[in-house]
Design a protein that fits this description.
The complex is a heterodimer of chains A (373) and B (538). By secondary structure, chain A is an alpha+beta fold. Chain A has three domains: 127 residues, no CATH class; 184 residues, Lambda Exonuclease, Chain A (Alpha-Beta Complex); 45 residues, no CATH class. Chain A contains 14 helices and seven strands. In chain A, the strands form two sheets. Chain A has a five-stranded mixed sheet with strand order 1-4-5-6-7, sandwiched between helices. Chain A has a two-stranded antiparallel sheet with strand order 2-3. The two termini of chain B are 43 Å apart. Helix content of chain B is 39%, strand content 17%. Chain B has a six-stranded antiparallel sheet with strand order 12-13-14-11-10-15. With 538 residues, chain B is α+β, with helices and mostly antiparallel strands. In chain B, a hairpin with a 6-residue loop joins β3 and β4. Classes of the chains: A alpha+beta (373), B alpha+beta (538). At the A-B interface, α5, α13 and α14 of A face α1, α3, α7, α8 and α12 of B.
Chain lengths: 373, 538
């Protein structure tokens, strides 16, 4: 059942207030979503992303600029490769889809490539949904949707997503295509990059499933996506089917349990605002009002990571040294507490974590002492 | 990470300096390593932008690809690299010593000793970081299947003569670096990270500048401050003061400095090609040279700081005394080097794209065995590592408080002395568990008999008495040899893990690969070259 109209409007207004007057909302891309699902416990990130705050600008204003950027060489190459793969009405791309995902279907000749242009993300989303429905009414043909627009409800606000391509198979099923410019070398690619691509594709699959659920009968969205990469050191496309069932399940679960943005927003003091034009002290206070869950992994995914790291270090949190470090220290969460416990100045000796720490400290002293002798 | 290493990290946080996690150096460092600091082009696979390379700290060679997407320029770079790396490798290939290796005699099927050559030293390649090791592998892969005009006159874009050979060597270095404890190819951040714990996470330790800032902070700064500066400080033009150790470059460098410089170079080249007479060509050649020089300057400015840091890191490592077993592991690296040298000389084809089942299983078995060996040897060489094993209940030290002579039952009684050790360690000893101690560089085995105590009445709360039965390395006589049994008052250290690695089960010959693993590989088919198109790049 859709939520009452009034509440949605109120939330939207609340989030706009958080962004600040006349600051446009920044769209959530799938990469941000996948990263969000990687650190679901961070309310700060959930709220800022949900409200469409430009975190890079916010980090600049806070005095801890993010270090993200993309080299124009990589960008040019990525775009050139995608254009090459999709050339000739996607003939190459459809051939790969046929070969890797659906070899028993008829070969794709003369696939239809509907025009998806429309005004605004909402318009494009509606146009995509229409094209998907129409494709379903023409069984036995292939349809290629080039850069469709999908909407996914994330913690109470819609996020617009733009997959590289979606293919409608002759049997009416849908599949997601991801085009990446890292190489597929001798049939294998960098696992970290494939993992990121799979998480990203999983978000697209979830969004497509939401579209499919509104059709009757609901078409099946395939859980094997096609990853297209340059082959070896050439510019020829090579593809591999990637099973994303696990990533889909994980993302689905984590998106569902994401703390609802509304609740976080309600807990904020009145008048909180993240506009980059505010003075740094005020901004810092605003950001501090939302609890964060910093871990070193954030450095690779979040624009605010350096700010959160400063704060985390200043507070002496052990998680700043890594999640595994935190895991083995039991209930001790700050550097000071741990060292005091290790030196025997604090802590309950019956606590196994404290006892292990003391033994570790003694053994370490003994070994280092032996070195000095 | 063990709790001891975690404590070291926490101490580093409070003291502002990295803390040692090893008391000796656990990797071999060559007296004359070849340092290689490569840079790559963002987005392209195996398209180098440049490199600093050399064995002389004060005279690195700068190699630059002015237009990384140009195949000819890339080949020129690789040929130059081959001219530096291959002579360095060859300089180690000639000095040999005689050694013995046991081989299976093809006629009798027995194991016999054969006299073989072993290179007396091996080359050592040092790259700044883990990503550098991966890049060496990638370069090796991109080169080893290339064809030269001599190998195949028909090949569309022939590679310069020595490039495929360099590819095979870099592949070998990359492959060897996956064997735990090997030192043919080292990533400096990993070696430094093995020996020091910083006050930041291991993820952040992968930044060479930040890591060194913690280990050797500049005068008057804490490690945290210096590391932050290394990570983030930028100059007036928005460029990092401490450029990333590569091979990837900072996007701000690519976009603001490199891209305009390459564009200028491209323009100058087009203009030169369109020159109509000699005078004009001279002018335009001047512009092209200037543009090329500008790119060289840029690449130098991004690699030189890393080059200096690599040598600084090597200096720091050299201050540590070498661990006792490091030499032995280096000998294995020498065997590996000699083996590949022989394969190259024998004219064997380049390493295949995919290993057959038996080779792959052998490689995995080797890595597992070497990991076990490394873990055991590091603990034996280094009390700090042993402390970690003791904490984990995998070893114990203590004082011998009693020795009772006993003998085995049987026709010829052998000594089986019972030794009582008082320890405050808490080893996880099962019934009749085997334990080992190092006796004259050989492991001596003992059997756990019983645990007495903990004796709360006389001593600290955690002490206990362990009774062990020594079972070997005492000679053939009825009385144990002098010094082969610990005496009362000795401090001893026993481990629950094996100190020497045994080879695993023997794998079948490739011809006998079972069908479950794809069956025999059949006649080796020569690997084809990679497909090339008019334009490799996009």
């Amino acid at each position: 059942m859709p939520p009452p109209r009034k509440r949605g409007t109120a939330l939207r207004q609340r989030l706009a207030d958080l962004r600040g007057p006349d600051v446009p909302a920044k769209a959530l891309d799938a990469r941000a979503l996948a990263a969000l699902a990687a650190n679901p416990g961070c309310s700060r990130r959930a709220l800022l992303d949900g409200a469409g705050v430009n975190k890079a600008a916010l980090a600049d204003a806070l005095g801890s600029p993010s270090a993200f950027g993309q080299s124009q060489f990589a960008l040019t190459r990525g775009n050139a490769f995608e254009a090459k793969v999709k050339a000739d009405g996607g003939a190459d791309l459809l051939r790969l889809v046929h070969e890797k995902l659906d070899p028993r279907a008829q070969p794709p000749t003369g696939a239809s490539v509907p025009d998806l242009s429309a005004i605004g993300p909402e318009g494009r989303t509606a146009r995509t949904a229409l094209a998907l429905r129409e494709a379903g009414q023409a069984p036995g043909t292939w349809t290629l949707l080039d850069h469709p627009m999908l909407a996914l409800d994330v913690a109470g606000s819609p996020a617009f997503l733009e997959p590289d391509a979606v293919v409608v198979h002759p049997d009416g099923t849908w599949s997601v295509v991801e085009i990446k410019s890292f190489p597929l070398l001798d049939g294998s690619a960098d696992p970290a990059k494939v993992g990121a691509a799979a998480r990203q594709a999983a978000v697209y699959v979830l969004a497509l499933e939401a579209v499919a659920a509104r059709l009757d009968p609901a078409p099946r969205v395939r859980h094997r996506v096609l990853l297209v990469c340059p082959k070896d050191f050439s510019n020829l496309p090579a593809a591999s089917a990637v099973d994303i069932r696990k990533q889909r399940a994980v993302t689905h679960r984590q998106l569902a349990r994401l703390t609802r943005i509304e609740e976080i927003a309600d807990a904020l003091p009145d008048g909180t605002c993240f506009s980059p034009e505010l003075p740094p002290e005020q901004l810092t206070a605003a950001v501090e009002a939302v609890p964060a869950a910093y871990a070193p992994e954030c450095l690779a995914a979040c624009e605010l990571a350096f700010h959160c790291r400063d704060r985390s270090r200043a507070a002496g949190t052990v998680t700043a040294l890594g999640r595994t470090v935190r895991a083995e220290l039991g209930g001790l969460t700050t550097v000071g507490d741990v060292l005091a416990a290790a030196r025997g100045e604090a802590g309950d000796p019956d606590d196994p974590a404290v006892a292990a720490l003391r033994r570790a400290a003694r053994l370490r002293e003994e070994a280092l002492g032996a070195m000095c002798r | 990470m063990s709790l001891i290493a975690t404590l070291a990290r926490l101490e580093a946080v409070t003291t502002g300096r990295a803390r040692p996690t090893a008391t000796v150096r656990h990797r071999h460092l060559s007296e004359r390593p070849l340092v290689f600091v490569p840079l790559t082009t963002a987005g392209e696979a195996g398209a180098p932008l440049g490199a600093l390379v050399g064995t002389d700290r004060d005279a690195p060679r700068l190699l630059v690809v002015a237009q990384p997407r140009d195949r000819d320029l890339r080949f020129a770079f690789l040929a130059e690299l081959a001219d530096i790396v291959l002579p360095y490798i060859d300089s180690h290939a000639d000095a040999v010593e005689a050694a013995e290796r046991s081989e299976t005699d093809p006629e009798t099927g027995k194991r016999v000793k054969v006299e073989v050559e072993l290179c007396s030293d091996a080359p050592q390649l040092i790259v700044p970081s883990r990503a550098g090791v991966e890049y060496v592998r990638l370069l090796g892969r991109s080169m080893r299947f290339r064809r030269t005009a001599e190998q195949d006159p028909e090949t569309p874009y022939p590679a310069p003569p020595r490039v495929p050979l360099l590819g095979r060597w870099l592949t070998h270095f990359g492959e060897r670096s996956r064997v735990p404890g090997s030192s043919l190819l080292l990533a400096l951040t990993e070696v430094l990270g093995r020996h020091w714990a910083t006050g930041q996470s291991s993820l952040e330790d992968q930044h060479l500048g930040a890591l060194l800032a913690w280990i050797a902070p500049p005068e008057g700064a804490t490690g945290a401050e210096a590391a932050l500066r290394a990570e983030l400080a930028r100059d007036g033009r928005g460029q990092l003061l401490c450029p990333p150790a590569g091979p990837a470059t900072d996007p701000a460098f690519d976009n603001k400095l490199l891209a305009p410089a390459i564009e200028r170079y491209d323009r100058a080249r087009t203009a030169l090609a369109a020159a109509e007479d000699g005078l004009q060509a001279d002018d335009r050649l001047g512009e092209l040279t200037a543009a090329e020089r500008a790119i060289r300057e840029l690449v130098l400015s991004r690699t030189l700081p890393t080059w200096e840091k690599v040598w600084q890191g090597l200096d720091l490592l050299r201050e540590l005394p070498e661990g006792a077993h490091v030499e032995e592991r280096w000998t294995r690296d020498r065997w590996s080097f000699t083996g590949h040298r022989d394969r190259v000389v024998a004219g064997e084809p380049p390493q295949p794209r995919r290993d057959d089942a038996v080779t792959a299983a052998n490689k995995l078995a080797t890595r597992e065995r070497e990991q076990g060996r490394l873990d055991a040897q590091e603990a034996l060489d280094d009390p700090l590592v042993m402390a970690g094993r003791r904490l984990a209940g995998e070893a114990f030290t203590g004082e011998v408080v009693d020795v009772v002579m006993a003998y085995s039952e049987g026709k010829r009684p052998s000594p089986r002395p019972l030794v009582t050790v008082r320890t405050d360690d808490r080893p996880h000893l099962g019934e009749r568990a085997k334990v080992f101690r190092s006796l004259g560089a050989k492991p001596q085995a003992a059997e756990f008999v019983r645990r007495d105590g903990p004796d709360a009445a006389d001593g600290p709360e955690e002490e206990c008495l362990l009774v062990l039965r020594i079972v070997d390395k005492m000679g053939r006589g009825k009385e144990p040899e002098e010094g082969s049994v610990p005496e009362k008052g000795d401090r001893v250290c026993f481990t629950l893990f094996e100190q020497e690695q045994r080879g695993g089960a023997k794998l079948p010959d490739p011809e006998d690969t079972p069908w479950t693993h794809g069956g025999p590989p059949g006649e080796p088919v020569p690997e084809t070259a990679d497909s090339v198109t008019e334009e490799d790049t996009l």
